[in-house]
Design brief:
Number of helices: 18
Shape: globular
Helix content: 25-40%
CATH superfamily of the largest domain: ANL, N-terminal domain
CATH topology of the largest domain: Rossmann fold
Number of domains: 2
Strand order of the largest sheet: 5-4-17-16-18-19-20
CATH architecture of the largest domain: 3-Layer(aba) Sandwich
Distance between the termini: 56 Å
Length: 650
């Protein structure tokens, strides 16, 4: 088996040149970028767009994601470089794994999976906490040319069973438990219940017994094997070549019910795109240390905890903890100091949580974070107040960028590696990343004037690394994403593009409310509320009104240090929105709440608030971190004259 690798010998050109080439000659552009990864067999065509939107990249080429993420670096002499650092304040443990050690562990697990019958194209489901073994499992699966479906470890049995039933995994890899700040989550009973509910019996379940914790997983004879047993002996397995368009993983979108929506990611395009992103957006080089503070169960975890940094030869950090409460709001800064983190990505919600607990960063300032070059934000729109606070306190550029589970990597960003200014315009989500021909369309489905709010779409073909289809649902893939705007991918987000090409992603398009004929973005109203010094978090939703059709309703959480009465804050908040957005917003419905409903990835569940206000039945999404908050939300809505006949969320 022969591997080839073509090193980069060119100085990166300007963003404008790179972007222009990627749009006008995508085949040549991506063919050159693909030479930076290792191929076992060259492709016959860079792109096949004969059946849009099912575009294929690097047709006929064969590669392996695990080889590019692990083995290649060992071959190149970097085996003793740290590949993974695990920092777990909830278990008071830290450990480091080199690339050579990672290669050995992955190869052993791949051999075990092969002995259990897993082969190229088979599905393996992974249900694990934030531990290195989860990454080992991901890499072992793709080493065999199989397909992993990693399920967020916080999901209950019903949600897990839906994914098991749809993916029909040959093997499931799990752990005895996960650790939250105040409790253990017993994974194995949840897994057993989910398997029973799904009606799908895997051939094997590999269970990792977490050391030093009291939870001991009960094993099912004949089906369950321990991780230690699977890894016993000196077995190993080589990387299996796969065609570039074969699925690498299936990632089910959060809250999947009914017909599951499994994003299917192609192998070749994904590793080419992630390699490009690590260099050109994040400006990360081999041997440097990167931390994406997310969960492996989300797309950020797949792309930028596991594959992206390892493809770049970086050290990736896996953090098992929270931004606050494990044990305090200084932990992010302690991690940056302890491990010399140079590139960091997190969600705006994490920064807001830290700001609320430690507004002057008294805890964070105890640590030396001089290694850090910048902070990237993703997951939801970052308000200016939070970004400005973070830059002032952390003393590095804080850069918002925007992407989706479907895209797999950023759609718009400040491209640090291409020399972009580290002081982008206020509220901007960046410029279109090379490969993405981003447009904003108006209600007539023609390109909107610059500076005008509209639907964000991307002209086909999509670049490498984006989803290739929905698993077992080609028709749904076409109808959901491409039917309403022929020739374009529909992001379902709303935004504005300015004269310089900066994109301002405002909200999901269904979060745009219509007040007396005026279309207003709820995120713009939230940002105005967050200008108030006593408000740390805010959510704005549209509620029905006989006169104006809809009115904005705002709920907010005060800062910890606040002593001002709610009535006074409410009056000031209304005045602030009038000043910053205008009287056209007709903003007068506002109330304080103890906390807002948020998913474990940090997103505020605005739709559930809006549905509750409209007296609709609300089924609490399984991703909500604290379902008990809805009692306070309902009470606040009723105080404003809404949710009066709403059933209690369940």
């Amino acid at each position: 088996m022969t591997f080839s690798f073509f090193p980069d010998a060119q100085t990166p050109p300007t963003y404008a040149n790179v972007y222009e080439r990627s749009i006008h000659d995508p085949e040549q552009f991506w063919a050159e970028e693909a030479e930076r990864i290792s191929w076992m067999k060259p492709w016959s065509r860079p792109m096949d767009n004969s059946n849009p939107p099912f575009t294929k990249w690097f047709v006929g080429g064969e590669t392996n994601a695990c080889y590019n993420a692990v083995d290649r670096h060992v071959v190149d002499g970097h085996g003793q470089r740290a590949a993974i650092i695990h920092d777990s304040p909830v278990t008071s443990t830290q450990r480091s794994i080199t690339y050579a050690e990672l290669q050995k562990q992955v190869s052993k697990l791949a051999a075990a999976l092969s002995s259990y019958g897993v082969k190229k194209g088979d599905n393996v489901l992974i249900y694990m906490p934030m531990i290195p073994e989860a990454v080992v499992a991901m890499l072992a699966v793709v080493r065999l040319g199989a397909v992993h479906s990693l399920v967020f470890g916080g999901f209950a049995a019903r949600e897990l069973s839906v994914r098991i039933k749809h993916a029909e995994p040959k093997v499931i890899i799990s752990a005895s438990c996960g650790v939250e700040p105040t409790r253990l989550i017993r994974y194995k009973p949840l897994l057993d219940q989910a398997i029973s509910m799904s009606g799908i019996e895997p051939k094997r379940c590999i269970i990792y017994q977490r050391p030093g914790l009291p939870e001991i997983a009960a094993m099912t004879p004949g089906r369950d094997v321990s991780w230690q047993e699977a890894m016993d002996g000196d077995r190993s397995h080589d990387c299996v070549p796969v065609e570039a368009n074969q699925a690498m993983y299936i990632l089910y979108t959060s809250g999947t019910t009914g017909d599951p929506k499994g994003i299917q990611r192609p192998t070749g395009g994904h590793i080419v795109a992630l390699s490009w992103v690590m260099k050109n957006i994040y400006d990360m080089k081999g041997g440097e240390r990167w931390w994406a503070a997310s969960d492996l169960g989300w797309v950020v975890g797949h792309s930028f905890i596991c594959y992206g940094p390892l493809l770049a030869g970086c050290t990736t950090l896996i953090y098992e903890g929270k931004p606050v409460g494990t044990p305090d709001a200084g932990q992010f800064f302690r991690v940056i100091q302890d491990h010399g983190i140079q590139g960091f990505s997190t969600a705006p919600t994490a920064l807001r949580a830290i700001r609320r607990e430690d507004p002057e960063l008294e805890l964070g300032r105890k640590y030396d974070t001089s290694s850090l070059r910048y902070v990237f934000l993703a997951g939801e729109h970052c308000d200016y107040e939070t970004r400005n606070w973070a830059e002032d306190k952390i003393k590095v550029p804080v850069l918002d960028h925007w992407w989706q589970t479907e895209s797999g990597h950023p759609i718009t960003s400040t491209c640090v590696g291409l020399g972009h200014s580290l002081s982008p315009p206020r509220d901007a989500s960046g410029v279109p990343v090379p490969g993405y021909n981003v447009k904003v369309l108006n209600a007539d489905k023609v390109e909107a004037e610059r500076g005008t709010l509209g639907r964000i779409v991307i002209k086909l073909p999509l670049p490498p690394g984006t989803m290739s289809t929905l698993y077992r649902a080609d028709d749904r893939f076409s109808s959901i994403y491409f039917k309403d705007y022929p020739g374009y991918y529909d992001t379902m987000d709303a935004g504005v593009m300015d004269a310089d090409g900066q994109l301002y992603v405002m909200s999901r398009d269904d979060d745009v409310i219509n007040v007396a004929g005026h279309r207003l973005s709820t995120s713009a109203l939230e940002e105005a509320l967050l200008e108030h010094p006593c408000i740390s978090e805010a959510a704005v939703v549209g509620v029905p009104d006989e006169m104006k059709g809809e009115l904005p309703l705002g709920l907010y959480v005060t800062t910890k240090a606040n002593t001002k009465p709610e009535e006074e804050i409410n009056k000031e908040a209304v005045r602030l929105v009038r000043e910053l957005v205008g009287p056209v917003a007709a903003f007068r419905l506002v109330s304080a709440v103890a906390t807002l409903p948020k998913t474990r990835s940090g997103k505020i569940a605005r739709k559930s608030i809006a549905d509750l206000a409209r007296n609709k039945r609300v089924v609490i999404p399984p991703t909500i971190e604290d379902p008990s908050v809805y009692g306070g939300i309902k009470k606040a809505l009723q105080g404003l004259g809404y949710a009066l006949n709403a059933p209690d969320p369940e």
